[in-house]
Amino acid sequence: MDYRQQIIEGIAIGIIIVAIAIILFVMKGQVPNDYPETSTDINVDELQTGDIVSVSYRNHLGIFISFWSSSTWSHPGMIYKRSDKEIFVIEACRYDKEWRGVIVIPIDKWIEFNKKNSLALTKISGPRICNEIVENALSKIVT
User: How many domains are contained in the chain?
Assistant: First the structure.
């Protein structure tokens, strides 16, 4: 490929990058605002298996997800309370090299990763989920 072709491709890539940046900037103003009117800290002692925790990321990916899902909440996870002292979040994520994919992460680690974001808790309203069902489902996850 000659030098002229490389310049044309470089300009085309630059135009695409600028277009994506403009789209993300415009989308930021279109993100739904369904934050709760009041917020409370997540009380770990009151969590039950099946409760849903959600995160609203304010980075470009979070804005993109919120735009397409029509919700502020861009990332959910399910609480798994193995015992009073063993509480986890089951989620699909990519925090770092250790915590990525479909994972079972301790609640304190999950809160640490998400402490700079808006968090929400939705309590389970149906029948209680027993730990055997959760363990059975987790055993089927391919890592």
Answer: 1
What is the C-alpha separation between 61 and 88, in angstroms, rounded?
Answer: 25
Q: Is residue 58 part of a domain?
A: yes
Identify which of 84, 94, 55 has the alpha carbon closest to the alpha carbon of residue 72: 55
The beta strands (E) that lie in 31-138 are given as 52-56, 75-81, 87-94, 100-106, 118-122
The predicted model scores a pTM of: 0.68
Q: Is residue 135 part of a domain?
A: no
What's the pLDDT tens digit per position in 100-127? 888 999 999 998 888 888 888 888 888 8
Q: What strands, in cross-sheet order, belong to the sheet with 118-122?
A: 100-106, 87-94, 75-81, 52-56, 118-122
Instruction: Identify the CATH number of the domain in which residue 52 sits.
Output: 3.90.1720.10
Print the domain residue range for 99: 44-125
pLDDT digits (tens, 9 = 90+) for 14-69: 899 888 877 766 655 555 555 555 445 688 888 999 999 988 877 767 777 777 77
